[in-house]
Amino acid sequence: MTFHQLFSRAALVSKVGSRSAFTSSKPDIANPNWLRVGLAFGSSVFLWGLLFKQHSTDVDEYKVRNGLE
After folding, report:
1. Is 17 in a helix, a strand, or coil?
2. pLDDT per residue over 1-50, tens digit each?
3. Mapping DSSP to helix (H, G, I), strand (E, B) and coil, where does residue 69 land?
4. 27/34 Cα distance (integer angstroms)
5. Burial code of 26-39, b = ≥16 C-beta within 10 A, e = fewer?
6. Cα separation of 62 and 54, whole Å?
7. What is the DSSP string of 19-67?
8. What is the Cα–Cα distance from 18 to 10, expressed in whole angstroms?
9. pTM of structure
10. Do 45 and 51 meet the contact criterion of CB atoms below 8 Å apart?
């Protein structure tokens, strides 16, 4: 059996013998899921806070090591 025959059979089986795990309904943009929105923005704010805190710590360490303070 050639590669082309194997590939075409695999493609046929995957189309026929499977179904999508995802729903095909469109999200309702008029009524957003506020819990998910809050979690997304909250986690983003938390990560930015960690980034700024780490940056400040790194700048302070740089100043101490190079005798700038």
Report:
1. coil
2. 576 665 666 655 555 556 667 767 787 889 999 999 999 999 999 999 99
3. coil
4. 13
5. eeeeeeeeeeeeee
6. 12
7. --SS--PPP-TTS--HHHHHHHHHHHHHHHHHHHHHHHHHHHHHHHHTT
8. 12
9. 0.56
10. no
Structure tokens at 29: 């943009």
- In the block, which residue shows the tokens 């059996």? 1
With b for 16 or more beta-carbon neighbours within 10 A and e for fewer, the 3-20 pattern comes to eeeeeeeeeeeeeeeeee
23-34 residue pLDDT tens: 677 878 899 999
Cβ pair 59, 65 in contact under 8 A: no
Q: Supply 54's token pair.
A: 């780490």
